Amino acid sequence: MRYTILIVPGFHGSGPAHWQSWLQDRVAQARRVDGIDWERPVLADWAAAVGRSIDAAPGPVLVVAHSFGCLASVRAAARRQHRVAGLMLVAPADPERFGPAGLRDQDREPGQQSVAAHIPDSPLGVPSLVVASTNDPWVRLSSAAYWADRWGSLLVNVGAAGHINVDSGHGPWPRGLELLDALHATCDGLPLGSINERPGQQAAAH
């Protein structure tokens, strides 16, 4: 099946030396989400922009997200299981680091709200990968594993790879392209729609 590959960068965006830009140059159907202020990580705004890009795509979408973009992508994809074929979520940022209006204060007061309550806490319903590192400054591996479990995602531990960005040496990233190819192959064998539904329910939905 032919998919639109939707690239969703994280906080500060992904510049020309970032692996997302490298991948975008190598995949014919890849396009980058637009309508996002990369310096203002506001979950509702980012998720709305991702949702608009999914809705505007000519066919089913594979999402390739990084960092805070992962949080926006899972929120947008949760209600679009018949548009989103799969998600590759690389170095998802810890939702506890962000509030509804952006980054939370380092010395936050008890009770200050995070965006954890505003992202899915149950299986996403489509094939997904969470690609995580053992020394990511934006999220502990245990937190990435927790969210992978909640979302029903396959956790891929790539070792000591930092935040899997330019600073950690991830410009050209052949392993990332391999993971996307593997996700693509998995999705090719499945109909669109929630994989949490029984086969009869999926057929009825189509």
TrEMBL record:
It comes from the Bacteria. GO terms for molecular function: hydrolase activity. The keyword Cytoplasm does not apply. It holds the Pfam family Ser_hydrolase. Keywords: Hydrolase. InterPro entries: AB_hydrolase_fold, RBBP9/YdeN. The keyword Cell membrane does not apply. This is Alpha/beta hydrolase. It comes from Zoogloea dura.
